[in-house]
Amino acid sequence: MTQHHDDHGHSLAEDMPLMEAMIGRRRALRWFAGAGTAALVAGCGGNGSDASSASVAVVTGTTPTPTPTATTATPTPSATTGTCVKDASETNGPYPADGTNTSSGSTSNALTASGIVRSDIRSSFLGTSTTTATGVQLKLTLTVVDVNSSCAALAGYAVYIWCCDRNGLYSLYTAAAESYLRGIQVTDANGQVTFTLIFPGCYSGRWPHIHVEVFSSLATATSGRYASLVGQLAMPAAACSTVYADTATYPSSARNFAQISLSSDNVFGDNSTAQIAQQTPTLTGNIAAGYIGTATIGLAR
């Protein structure tokens, strides 16, 4: 296909003689002063690119800064900004306990069980077991935002998370007698929920991760079929290397982690760079004190 390019190379000096000949010097100057702004705007908009064709849209949210009045002597703080993308939809895996499959444990739908709404999810809460999952502590805060509304916080949303234990086993399934490392929280006015769990182990064939399902309300969080988002969080590589070096606590994770990469992972491998960045929690802390993590979850409402 032949591409057509508009010729925008003429300067004012080149065009002026023609303008003078057509409408006179004075009229040409008056016309250019009035239309110059419109011409500049038109010239800046025709590069032929379409931002909507990108596979992932990055949205920037801005909190407006109040304009100082004439009597205000204190400098106005800078506006705060943030970016978000729509989280990739991922598989909920074979161990969701959200009512979408069967399990070998006490229930296949932990979302309807009494006690599932909790912040500290390290202990089992179903049946007779009260076992607490051991490992490096992780306190994780998730912020749920609307990518179609300048990354505005979404309050009142139910967030269900679950992950494997330090041996790579999932409660209610491969650790059938346990129900630890599963829980729901409801987002506050800032769109945030906080969970206390452990740093998940790494099992063969998968990058270390935490599963996430987001529902529009606690009332709809009774079946995984009603989730607004089924996603996963990718654990940061540096923290994985540090945590898994303790082979007494995480006996097989270091070996499994050495055999996987984000690009080869069958879940994260086809995600965009922006999605991976958002799906990877930011962590501070250490093994002895535990880690504190934050991540954003972007929904397109």
From TrEMBL:
It comes from the Bacteria. SUPFAM superfamilies: Aromatic compound dioxygenase. PROSITE patterns: TAT. Residues 62-108 are annotated as: Disordered. Residues 62-83, 99-108 have a biased composition (Low complexity). GO terms for molecular function: iron ion binding; oxidoreductase activity, acting on single donors with incorporation of molecular oxygen, incorporation of two atoms of oxygen. Coiled coil: none annotated. The keyword Cytoplasm does not apply. Keywords: Dioxygenase, Oxidoreductase. PANTHER family: INTRADIOL RING-CLEAVAGE DIOXYGENASES DOMAIN-CONTAINING PROTEIN-RELATED, PTHR34315. This is Intradiol ring-cleavage dioxygenase.
